[in-house]
């Protein structure tokens, strides 16, 4: 079995004529939680979309358990066990919580049952008959995350899950993500809120101008304050 669940090297990506990613390289071991940190426009979301094949054009290598995925269509990539939770959440707003949870197809064995989902997300159990338009922002985010757990994905790509949410909801999402890590999920988290991410991640990849500018491990965070200040302004 390959040492890394996800291995990216010399990844370039374009939207039309715009060259966004410039030789990105990173690895994620099975069971790790890593963050992609950086200012707006640095290329963080484009890295997630490039993993899924959702950019106009890409080159380089994106390997999942040693299997090359550059060149595969998005639906084939998803069936390898990758779940993508986009910043815009993408729930079906006219359907109920439970209908949203029943829609995703099984991509891989091991998806959570409804009972497991409701145990992990008790808010969704309470709102299971409510349509998406009646959910709060935090509940919509939880539903978006819960849907990908139904598919059997074991690599989760989470994009800006705390964006625009109240601090109490951010704390609840932090606890949820920590539980997912404890259950063995591998997680790549794009995040603007460094203080939220700092306590969760094994490693931080700092993204600037479409490439990896630096890497900081969990045990280095306290000593690398100047690095975070330089790249993130925190």
Describe the structure concisely for a colleague.
Helices cover 32% and strands 27% of the residues.
Describe the protein:
- The protein is of the alpha/beta class and 234 residues long.
- It has two domains: 149 residues, Rossmann fold (3-Layer(aba) Sandwich), CATH 3.40.50; 65 residues, no CATH class.
- 32% of the residues lie in helices and 27% in strands.
- The chain is built from nine helices and ten strands.
- A six-stranded mixed β-sheet has the order 6-7-8-3-9-10, with helices on both faces. A four-stranded antiparallel β-sheet has the order 2-1-4-5, covered by helices on one side.
- Strand 9 and strand 10 form a beta hairpin.
- The longest helix is centred in the last third of the chain and has 16 residues.
- The protein is globular and about 45 Å long.
- The relative contact order is 0.19.
CATH topology of the largest domain: Rossmann fold
Q: What's the helix count?
A: 9
The secondary structure category is: alpha/beta
Helix content: 25-40%
List keywords for this structure.
9 helices; 32% helix; 27% strand; 2 domains; 234 residues; Rossmann fold
Lay out the secondary structure.
Blueprint: E1 6-15, E2 18-28, E3 33-37, H1 44-52, E4 57-64, E5 67-68, H2 74-78, E6 82-85, H3 97-102, H4 114-120, H5 122-126, H6 137-149, E7 155-159, H7 167-182, E8 186-190, H8 194-198, E9 203-208, E10 211-217, H9 225-232
Parallel strand pairs: 3-8, 3-9, 6-7, 7-8
Antiparallel strand pairs: 1-2, 1-4, 4-5, 9-10
